[in-house]
Amino acid sequence: MSEDTGTAAAPADNAPGGEPLPHGIGASLPSAECRAKTEGTFPYAADLWAEGLLWAAVLRSPYAHARIVSIDTSHALEMPGVHAVITHEDVPGDALHGRRTPDRPVFASDVVRHHGEPIAAVAADHPDTARMAAAAVIVEYEVLEPVTDPEKAFEAEPLHPDGNLIRHIPLRHGDPEAVGELVVEGLYRIGRQDPAPIGAEAGLAVPRPDGGVELYVASTDPHADRDRAAACYGLAADQVKVVVTGVPGATADREDASFQLPLGLLALRTGCPVKLTATREESFLGHAHRHPTLLRYRHHADAEGRLVKVEAQILLDAGAYADTSAEALAAAVSFACGPYVVPNAFIEGWAVRTNNPPSGHVRGEGAMQVCAAYEAQMDKIAKKLGVDPAELRLRNAMATGDIMPTGQTVTCPAPVAELLAAVRDFPLPELPKDTPVDEWLLPGGPEGAGEPAAVRRGVGYGLGMVQLLGAEGADEVSTATVKVHDGVATVICAAVETGQGFTTLARQIVQETLGIEDVRVAPVDTDQPPAGPSCRGRHTWVSGGAVERAAKMVRTQLLQPLAHKFGMSTELLQITDGKITSYDGVLSTTVTEALDGKELWATAQCRPHPTEPLDEAGQGDAFVGMAFCAIRAVVDVDIELGSVRVVELAVAQDVGRILNPAQLRTRIEAGVTQGVGAALTENLRTPRGLVRHPDLTGYALPTSLDTPDIRIVKLVEERDVVAPFGAKAASAVPVVTSPAAIASAVRAATGRPVNRLPIRPQAAVAQ
């Protein structure tokens, strides 16, 4: 999907024949910035510039765990061109920050808790000078033994004043004495996936005459970043302004304040604009990753394969700091049984601190890890019973009205069986038996070393679910303003466009509601009311809902004079293709004529129904809504070399309502591809807590050559009545589901258990 960034949208495009493209909800309206981005002219954070600019560099710890004995900045300060060197002693406000728990230091002071933790920052007149000055800061360390095994964190010495345990959730649902005729067990490990940002992480800080500072960064939650920065700088919130620059896609990497906070400190210290552009290595060391997870499962089923009880232990490695680990654990525990009916469930979940790199929000956090495990368990049950894996899943599929293990009733549409049947019945890809051997695309690529005789094909299934919006009492509110003047509508909303298509959706909403083609979305900054973070489909639901309400209020302002003049209510008037007509045809005019130079505007909020925290037994209505997905994977495996090629992924997804067909399909395809990386190649290795090969050579992202045929075979449009437009988030649930489906297919091809992601070659070699 092309990515919007919240900058002003251009007027409507025209089709090649000169006719206007379709507009409004349901049309494949293109992004206003897609051309600039494809041509390489779109301004991202790394492109920022200011008069009198200084360059920043950050000194980071080479150790995963160490005590800081001393820090000597004198040599760095003496270097020509260096304007400032700052450490923990130069933080005037709060020395700790965090997205939920303020437990992470701006600069390490006494103890280093992970590889790459910031120690000092430098501002100089040239980027090379800044990097050399940072390297000239002398730090004396007393190296300590790192705690890198999350299982050992329970008994290890506390790594943090708050202890090593971040959260424990014991979920209790049903009868603990229930047993099934069939019992299967498994131990599963999920690796550390990096969000791998598309563009460089960068930012610019500009001091203000009033003693404040402006931060130009690719933030996904500008108001939260402003508040953290103001607390760190010892300033009032209104003295710090965050301006969102071009965001080239975002997950955890755009939500890490460790890049932003030193910038403002340096700008305030020097009185000059300061810019920081992180290297790829710094990105790997600094931002959060997907939680590595250890999972133990025991499934009980009856003789027909219907689930009786699920028991599980889930251990999330949070790394050095809490970040979003409490929320990720809640998702993992709540969705530990998957989209299946489970009358009895007993889940123990923990999130612990270690000396590994920090973990945080990455698409489908918590849900992705458990999906890989519970789907492996479903394959084991099917194999023991000799039942088709798809049939076994159908016998247990969740539906609307069922009860989750948290005790929450599934009130949203849950067409799980329909989704699974769609991918099961979709025709399988043809075998290459009639293709000349020298044209076969073998696992390992066209030049793969394997032999065709060693290739086995496997078919597997995955069913996944994710939450929509925040959970456990999170206040999901957003505010939007719609203004109309001189035939142009402007949307003002602090919802950051991270690639999810919000600015395009906002344009479509206003076009449909007001009949105005030229709709622009204002750039985002913290002078606007807050809209919250860009994650879990929030802005499609909450910010889109706020835009819709504001647009409808403007619509009423527009139509009321006409309705009064003709003695009818505004409900009897409709706006279509820029024309206002009455039900009886008496009134017919254009929107432009009705505006007659007037300026109209309205501000509205959207706040979904409240949720509640999970109680001491893991029970509670914690989620606003859920989305579901079914994927059938077809893979070819070289059973001698263990190499895997994903041939095809057939996808059926619960989308609520299709708002922009082209964007939706592209979001699903992108999510599936991210899942392919988690399944086969992406694993940030951290022996003894040290990030190994922090670059895109050592960390293997899937490319276009690794992307299989993705067949979107069904999109179920069953509207969620509590969601604006009835739509559901689209990109997270295929990320959650595709790794499980690929692992299932590899199991089918090899007969091996495949209990680890990413799948290692030795796990795909047939016994």
Topology record:
Elements: H1 34-39, E1 54-60, E2 66-72, H2 74-78, E3 82-86, E4 96-97, E5 104-105, E6 111-112, E7 118-124, H3 127-136, E8 138-143, E9 165-173, E10 182-190, E11 202-207, E12 213-217, H4 222-233, E13 240-244, H5 261-270, E14 274-277, H6 280-286, E15 293-301, E16 307-317, H7 325-334, E17 344-352, H8 367-385, H9 389-396, H10 416-425, E18 455-471, E19 478-485, E20 488-493, H11 502-514, E21 519-521, H12 538-566, E22 573-576, E23 579-582, E24 588-590, H13 591-595, E25 600-606, E26 623-638, E27 644-654, H14 661-680, E28 709-716, H15 732-750, E29 756-757
Parallel strand pairs: 1-14, 10-29, 12-13, 16-17, 20-21, 27-28
Antiparallel strand pairs: 1-7, 2-6, 2-8, 3-7, 4-5, 9-17, 10-15, 11-12, 11-14, 15-16, 18-26, 19-20, 19-25, 22-23, 23-24, 26-27
Helix pairs in contact: 7-8, 8-15, 11-12, 14-15
Describe the structure concisely for a colleague.
The chain is an alpha+beta fold. The chain is 24% helix and 25% strand. The protein is built from 15 helices and 29 strands.
Poorly predicted ranges: 1-19
- Characterize the biggest β-sheet: 7 strands, mixed
* Number of strand segments: 29
Radius of gyration: 27 Å
Average of the residue pLDDT scores: 90
Number of helices: 15
Strand percentage: 25-35%
The helix content, as a percent range, equals 10-25%
What strand order characterises the main sheet? 3-7-1-14-11-12-13
Task: Assign the structural class, choosing from mainly alpha, mainly beta, alpha/beta, alpha+beta, or little secondary structure.
Answer: alpha+beta
Gap between N and C termini, in Å?
Answer: 42 Å
Shape: globular
